[in-house]
Amino acid sequence: MHNVQKPTDKQLFKQIAQHNEEAIATLLDRYKNKFYTAIYVLVKDQYLCEDFFQEVCIKIINCIRDKKYKDDGKFLPWAMRLARNYTFDQMRKMKQKAQIVTIE
Length: 104
Known about the structure:
This protein is mainly alpha-helical and 104 residues long. It is built from four helices and no strands.
């Protein structure tokens, strides 16, 4: 039986700083179920959740690549807040569009 240790978040961020794209994928894969569940609880629609989830993952990747996230050991709370805020923003936009109805 193999005793393979998974890299810590801190180790992954060191790899990301060295432009290791696989480290980003590993990091997202580690927490994807939490992101998806958090979004689904808010939208309660599978297809909308999948769209939001994909956009949130792209936002996380871009923030990491653009060095907007500083690794301080709080990746999961930061990413969950980003997912939550993105979801609320999108739902607010959808609600505003739904209220704009013209009666002729």
